Amino acid sequence: MTTTSASEPASTAATRRPGALLVMNEASYRAALSPESLARLGESVDLLVPGPLTDVAALPDDVLARTEVLITGWGAAPITPNADRLPALRALVHTAGTVKHLVTPDMMRAGLAVSTATAVNARPVAEFATAAIIFALKRVPAARANFLQTRDKRGAGYQAGIGAHGGTVGLIGASRVARAMKPWLDLLEIRVVVSDPYLDPADAAALGWELVDLDTLLRRSDVVSLHAPSTPETAGMLGAAQFASMKDGATFINTARGALIDHDALAAEAAAGRLDAMLDVTDPEPLPADHPLWELPNVWITPHIAGSIGDEVLRLGASAVDEVERFVAGEPFERPVEVETWALIG
C-alpha cells in the first residue's frame, strides 16, 4: 500500500479516475447501491470489475495492482490476507458498520484511509431504541401479554410508576446511537443517567445526562438501554449480579451486542416477573430453540432489525458514495475510522 493521505487527491483526478472494486455480497450490493448511487460512483472511480465480488483473492495481480479504492459491505472477506497484493490501495469505504474483520490498525498506519457507515447506521438504531424505551416506560410487553390472556383493558392505564413522565432511563454507553437518541429523549419528561468509563463529566453535563457508575445506573433506572461496544472488556458485563440489582418492574433493552450479557441470568429474572426485556440482539443469534427467553410473555425478541433494513440500507450506500467523492476530490472523510479509537470499535 502507498502512504499518501486521505486528503491527497487520488492521482490527477481531473484526467484519471482511480481504480476501484466493489467487495460485498450480491444482496448487499443490490440493497445498498441504488442506480443513482452507482451512477455517481462511476463518475468518481473506474470500477475494475463490473459488479460485486466477496473476495479479492481470486483476482489477477494486474487488477489488484491498479486498485486504489475498495468499497466494501456485508459479506466481504477480510482484506488483510491480500494486503501485499494491493500496492496501490489507499482507501477503503465500508457501506456498513464495523471494519474490524476487514483491515488492521497496521494497514491504517501504513497509509490506508478507512471510512465506515457506522454513524449513518446509528440513526435507525437510535429510532428503534427510543421507541423501545417508550414502550418499556409504558410496560407494553407485560400489558400486551396480560391483555391477550384476559381480554380486559380495565386498569391497564392507571398503574403508578408507569408511563413516560418522571421515570429514569439509564444508558450504558454514550455511543453514537445513544447520542443520536438525545433529541427524542429530550422530548420525554424523564431523567437520563449514563454510565461510560470514557465519557468526560463535562461532556455528560453538556448532554444533560447524569454520569454515574454502572451499579448506580442499574439500581436507579426504570429502563436500562445497552449501547456499549463489543470488546474483550465488555463481554459478559451484565450477569446475574447486575440483573438482580435492577429495580422490580424495570425493563432491559439491548440493541448493541448479545455477547455483552448473560441470557440465562436475564431469563431467570424475567421468569420471576421482576424484569421485562426487549432484545434485538442475542448471543448466539438466534438463541437456541429451547431457550426460556423465547416463551416468556414479558420478553420481546426481534430478529436484529434495529439497524438499517429495507430502504434504510440505501442511506448507507449513498453515504459511502459521498465518502468516495470526498476522497477523489482530495477532501478528508467525514466519517473516518481512527487508529486511536480502534479498541472501542464494536
From TrEMBL:
Transmembrane in keyword set: no
PROSITE patterns according to UniProt: D_2_HYDROXYACID_DH_2 (PS00670)
GO cellular component, one term: cytosol
Keyword Ubl conjugation: no
GO molecular function: glyoxylate reductase (NADPH) activity; hydroxypyruvate reductase [NAD(P)H] activity; NAD binding
Domain of life: Bacteria
Keywords, sorted A to Z: NAD, Oxidoreductase
Residue ranges constituting the D-isomer specific 2-hydroxyacid dehydrogenase NAD-binding domain according to the UniProt record: 133-306
A Pfam family recorded for this sequence: 2-Hacid_dh_C
Protein's UniProt name: Hydroxyacid dehydrogenase
Native source organism of the sequence: Propioniciclava coleopterorum
